Known about the structure:
Blueprint: H1 2-8, H2 12-44, H3 49-98, H4 101-107, H5 109-133, H6 136-151, H7 156-200, H8 202-207, H9 211-263, H10 269-310, E1 331-338, E2 348-355, E3 360-365, H11 371-379, E4 386-391, E5 394-395, H12 401-407, E6 408-412, E7 420-421, H13 422-427, H14 435-444, H15 448-452, E8 461-462, H16 471-483, E9 489-493, H17 501-512, E10 519-524, H18 527-530, E11 535-540, E12 543-548, H19 550-556, H20 558-569
Parallel strand pairs: 3-10, 3-11, 6-9, 9-10
Antiparallel strand pairs: 1-2, 1-4, 4-5, 7-8, 11-12
Helix pairs in contact: 1-3, 2-3, 2-6, 2-10, 3-5, 5-7, 5-10, 6-7, 6-10, 7-9, 7-10, 9-10, 14-16, 19-20
Amino acid sequence: MKLIFDHIGKYKAASILSPVFKLLEACFELTVPLIVAGIIDYGIKQSDMHYVWTHVPILALFAVVGFASAITAQYFAAYSACGISSGIRKSLHDKLQTLSISDYEKIGSSSMVTLMTSDVNQIQTGINLFLRLLLRSPFIVVGACIMAAVVKPSMSLIFIVCTALMAVVIGLNMKLSILRHKQAREGLDSLVKKTSNGIAGERVIRGFNKTADDYSKFEAKSLMLKSAQIKASDFASWLNPLTYAVVNLGICLLIYRGAVHFNIGDLTDGQVVALYNYMSQILIELVKLANLIVSVSRAYACLKRAEGLTDVVSTASKGTKTLEPSKPVAVSLKNVSFTYQGNNEESVKDFSIDIKPGETIGIIGSTGCGKSTAASLIAGIYDPTEGEVALDGINIRDISLASLSSSVGMSLQKTRLFKGSLKDNITVGRTSLTDNDINEACRLSCSDDVVKTKSEGLDYEISDGGAGLSGGQRQRIGIARALAGKPGLVILDDSTSALDWGTEKRLLGNLDDLAQKPTVILISQKVRTCMNCDRIILMDDGKIEAVAPHEELLKISENYRYMNSLQIKGGAV
């Protein structure tokens, strides 16, 4: 409940007023059977129409005031529920922004999506029902028992026994259903993950004619979720029948005992009607309470999942040191090793290199040799399992995230573009960037060719994922994004793979011709991309095999010579 209390803040008054107005409505409702009993006993039975006509307006007044109280309570409950759930959703979003990539991978994107949408909606529904009914229903049940004791003390035992039995039923149901609802939410996570993967890989699935297989896997996940939801609903499905059974048996006993007392003159017509009305009120409120327990149990399970995320201790860097803006960065890796979450083998092993400011370094090797992992370690995306990564002599863990993001520009092979203008995709919210910064980044990355083909220029709107742009155009926009902030360290992680040789050569030449050249790290499988670098790091199985310029590597590394000969024969160089 801590997460709710953290966000109740300005909704505290509304959260109090909602149950207060509901209790006010309940007071009117509990008084009505006594007025009806009086009308029957003193008005109708004794033919006193004046008594009838003076008390009927009181019933009408109670109805109007009760209705107004119910509407007001609903307004305050909805206001509080929407406000608190909005605060919870924002806190979850803010928490996600503080997590490292490793934390993201551990939690899973499907869990995050479910938490931010379905789980928060369930919490909102639970808060709304809680404020409206959790006090009102028990108040009516207890109040009806007390009023029944006022009408006929000897009959109140029936009410007490029925209420006690239902308390046991509801308590057991709540205890057993919370765990089942949690398992159902985890099943929903699994289905969301499968759906996300299917959508992301739609082209591959269709290209290899695996639509039927993907459907079978989706169906299996759906059936697992169905089974979990059925198990969660099993207990809830028994709640209403048990409630009706207990209360209806109580009504039968009440009518039987009432008839006995009526025959001996110990109970009036109006009192019998009043007792029946109070038992009916208990029936209605217990049914409401049973349904409320189901909803609150589901909401509580969702709330515990949300609190689990907020309790995650982020492994992201919380350093305070800063790098000098736009200044070429010196990079040093000392005995760095890294293992991905859940893997047993190291992806990078004993990696050590010193890179001078303004130097251009190529990292080359076969697929899966650890090139991109090494780049991610240098960019601070992952923290090394062992060893140290330093920028300008400062441990990367001690550098603030703001300084790190402004000093390191990274472009990946698969550029993620968002729905919006080309300009928005280059700036990604960096309001400090000027038009000159953006135009210069477009020129350096050769994406000015892309802008010129669009009549709207940088205001050209693209859809989510960059549909309508070729792979090479998307990569150039991604490189422009990395260069726009004038970082001191530029990492191009195979982000020229979709470019033709002429465009790639022009882009690399633009970087070399800069007056204040940043430190550049090029990751590629193509020899031609890295052959003009100051030095080339040849990697194999996560380790550095050799470090030297192109011509020297050809002399000292058989592996590099073989790679070069294959690409020359294939026309890659």
